[in-house]
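Task: sequence in, structure out. Protein: Molybdopterin-dependent oxidoreductase.
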Amino acid sequence: MAETKHGAGGRTGRAHPLGRGSAALAGVAAVVAALGLAELVAGLIPAAPSLVVAVGDTVIDSVPGWLEQWAIATLGTADKPVLIGGVLVVSVLIGAGLGVLARRYVILAAGGIALFATLGVVAALADDRNPVFLTVLVGLLGAVTGIAVLGLLVVGLPRRAVPADAGRPAPADPADPGTVPALSPLDRRRFLAVTGGATVLGVLAGIGGSLLSGRERLDQLRAAIRLPVPARQAAPVPAGADLEIPGLTPLFTPNAEFYRIDTALRVPTVDPDGWQLEVRGMVDEPFTLTYAELMELPHIEADVTLACVSNEVGGDLVGNARWQGVPLRALLDRAGLQEGATQLIGRSVDGFTAGFPVLTALDVEEAMVAVAMNGEPLPAEHGFPARLVVPGLYGYVSATKWLSAIELTGWDVDGYWIPRGWAKEGPIKTQARIDVPGGAVAAGRRPIAGVAWAPTRGIERVEVRIDDGPWQEAELAEPLDVDCWRQWYLPWEATPGRHRIAARATDGRGEVQTDERTPVAPDGASGYPVIEVVVS
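Result:
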């Protein structure tokens, strides 16, 4: 029987009791164990970074703008889970390859795991907010765990099961003629049990790390916050502002259903007790506010519709909420603007930036540093403890979540999305959306209904066209505020057959929604929303 040989580079020659498939499973288990332990350590130590998230962030920052646009347009709010899933799938495939490599070159495979961990550490250290020591510690523990599991499964267990001086005959690995005998059934069961156990423990550790990332404590902190009574409250909702038609979008979007588009792969968990907001840049008197100081300032309340620039015509990346916070103008007046301060840059704790004209912050009274959404402290997904809300502008130039700084600059400074192909200015276009009817309805009297929005301008008219007929003016719900959307409906006698329904809105300035169809890039989609309905 061939004898297992070890040489330079940890080579074991052609003699190995594990087949390629078993070795691949061993490599997968090693990588899963490594990632799981690294995530668990990151969850247990608040300041330690997630290497998986760091790699994902690097991917986001590295891909071309057109690919990011495609991902958001195609995947919508599922883009982040898909990216994290992709990172994990690639990691598993790498692990399988390293497992196969370890049959012949153990040391090289171990080096591959070390390199794999090093790449994660380098990605995490690209963010200067991550402590060097803790980042290296996470990578080191992950690498040691992965190498130990790989060594146990590819070297330790097989050598115990098939010692070099064993003389018992057994079938060789058919995929590798000349190997030592394959594992016996009992030894194979032992191998699979250890492999499966390492994989399961790695998965559980990874899940545990995510659960321990501070979210539970953050929810407790949010629950303990008592919001101050706004010095200027939003107007009461008039009767008839919500038409309450089945299938029609409600006047206020529940927080849990509000769309989320941002660059954060893992929602930042920011302790309000340690959070600060810095107002700096081209100002006479820069200053810093704690969360408690921000809550003590006079607050306003406003109903504002936010929209993502990636929202396709008729899409759902738009929502309406009642926001509460401190007016931006009050903070800028306190700081004192210097000549040439034409842009306000919002900076997030995760490094994201967005910029818009200072005149907007001064002229739009409802522009604010928001701390509450629909009567409760901001959810973590929507920017807790504070974020920017600026009516009339797409989120990519204004809606900085997890706000850490407000910086006054000249117009030559670009926010995150501008070098990636998006327009420097992003005013929200006048839009209508058709919510009902659905794709198939029964004949008879049916409502055609939806919402329309033009923040800072309001909606004055919505018209509907059925097939090639004339434009018909829809009934509008009572207006709430020019900054928030308005519901509308049109009674329709639905006759059997296939029908094509289009809508268009007119804003408070008399501008009619254009029929020119444009893509979302670089400054938002335009065109009429059109649906097809089959009436039976």
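The first strand starts at residue 276 and ends at 281.
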